[in-house]
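<instruction>
Derive structure tokens from the sequence
<data>
Labelled lines for chain and fold:
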Amino acid sequence: MANLFVVRSLDEIKFWSRIMKEHSLFLTLGFTYEQKQLIEEAQQFIEEFERIEEQLSKFTVNSDPEQIEAFNNKVYQAAASIWAYKRKVLGLTLNCQIRSNNFPLLIDHISREAAYFANRLEELNEGTLTPLPEAIIEENVFFLKIMADHAKFIGHLLDPSERKLVDQAKEFSHDFDQLVFQAIDLDSMRPQSETSPLLDQFLDQNRISVVSLRDFKKTARDLIEACRIKSNIHPLLADHTFREAERFIEIIDRFETYLENNN
């Protein structure tokens, strides 16, 4: 039987390494021609995560857990490094030392995802394999904010003449902001709020909203790829946000299974 630690580790690295690589590409597309040093640094991260993906392909679910632990440590260093790079870019942007087409919220957003990736690897190496009640709320706070950000980015990158889609993105932004506030309230009530009935309702409500946003993202991605709508959204960015919504749904599924098995 495959080792759960190995399975989870390989899954996290496969998903998030691609995300980190794409973040680097998106930053380069937003920099101006004067910001050559920052572009070169981003390119180095693209190459680093491509090497990680290449190494990842040599492992299987039957690989030695000790080798996977060592690999996790190596990838953790890469995730921590790209987090530091993103925070540096955010600082330069907020201090007006550089002016680019990368929204400060986007830079903060992708740095939060790098921190999440690094933390996940650290947790796995510490032996945290199954969801804990407090993690259910914490992870939903994290991912709901990610989804809210996505809606805002889509709304701002669509051409203003795409009025209907812009309005839909604004509605999703508002809805997910409300879900974030609800999740924060539930988080502040911990540990008393960590009951199965409350968590079940919490996950059910979030699932409905995430599935709706996922479907909107899929439609937008397909329209962008077919050049049927006007926007500044790169087709890969559209697919990127769709995959993250899919990931959130998978995590909700895992949490629901955990609650069912522990009632």
Q: What stands out?
A: The chain has a mean pLDDT of 96. The CA atoms of residues 104 and 241 lie 17 Å apart. The chain has eight helices and no strands. Residues 65-94 form the longest helix (30 residues).
